Amino acid sequence: MAMAAQKMEIISEELIRPSSPTPQTLTTHKFSYLDQVQLTCHFPIILFYPNHHQLDSSNLHGHTQIKSQNLKQSLSKVLTQFYPLAGRININSSVDCNDSGVTFLESRVQSQLSEAIKNIPIDELKQYLPSLKNDIPLAVKMSFFECGGTAIGIYISHKIADAMSLATFLNSWTATTRSEEETDTDLQPNFDLGSHHFPPLENIAETKLLPDNENIVMKRFVFNKEKLQALKAQLIASSAMAASRLQIVVAFIWKQFIDMTCAKFDAKNKFVAAQVVNLRSRMNPPLPRSTMGNILTVALAHAIVKEKNKDFADLVEPLIVSLEKIDDKYAKDLQKGTTNYMDNEGSGSESEPQEEEELLVFSSWCRLGFYDLEFGFGKPVSVCTTSFTKKNLICLMDTRSGDGIEAWINMVEDEMAMFPSEFLSLVDHDFSK
Length: 433
Prior knowledge:
Blueprint: E1 8-16, E2 28-30, H1 33-36, E3 39-40, E4 42-49, H2 57-78, E5 88-90, E6 94-96, E7 102-109, H3 113-116, E8 138-145, E9 150-157, H4 163-177, H5 193-197, E10 207-208, E11 216-223, H6 225-239, H7 245-264, E12 270-278, E13 296-304, H8 316-324, H9 328-336, E14 358-364, E15 382-384, E16 393-398, E17 405-412, H10 413-416, H11 421-424
Parallel strand pairs: 3-10, 7-8, 12-14, 14-16
Antiparallel strand pairs: 1-7, 2-6, 4-9, 4-15, 5-6, 8-9, 11-17, 12-13, 16-17
């Protein structure tokens, strides 16, 4: 059931500041080179939590007030460690860590949570996200349903964080809300290692997000355990090649994209799959998971299609080979400036996709533990993102069960409709499953 936007009422808006002022020695956070080359945009995540308490209407208001107060207090406390998130961004250079605060909105939804996450258009998920400005690193919106369920929508600036950084922040925030001592070093953020290993460049141009002038839609494709096993068996039968479940899904989606593009544009035969790669674990010694910022690069896999109906197994090898090139040597070349961010050909020469190449971008949020985030009222029943204004972008996420993968695909509407029925059968807008 689609829920009309007018059924949501904003009840408060405020700025949450760190509980202790940021020391004068930390008032400027410099971007790394890898921060500078990211798009100027915010990326979203929405966590939906059911109500596990049997409460009547007279007790529900007080219950939600306690939830809200606990989250605000813990956010204020955790911002003393994640102080740049409470600052303001200077275009493509740094963050003024001036404790200006994180935008925090609260809203009341005249609906049951079960209705809000069942068979709705993905675009309607945006109402659970806060409003924001480009210079604000972090914004939060907390929405309360009539049943006592809660949605927590978050925007975080891509200039200051990648998906791993977001996971680090959310894990620390939830632990603080539960009043747990933070003994886990993975929860202790380090904002200095990024610019130390990848020093910023002078006068590097800002890359603004320019929306595509086409009708972009997003659909969620669910690869459950059985579908992943079937694709793995198909791969082994075709090539006897070993691949991770993530690589199998990427290759399968890439194959559908290639087939669709070839059917629409007969002249198109060169394709690139760009995989966003976490550099932390690929460096020697590896950087801690809690290293904040954009510690990532892009692996480019190329495919030239000379015949139609190319098997998806044929696309696995170039994906694996492109990932293997992202190693410690590549990271060191990136640090020294002898290779380019979009160059993993090993030559140090520019290798960005050429104009005639069709690009598909994959970013994985798998294994980041978003379904384990507990603020003290249980684990989320659904974790979502929303549509983007750029086409051919794909976000891969874990299913709630943990044994499947969701592919949230942004694409031009008429091209999305050209995918084969076998693939479109994987579409699922029921976020309650």
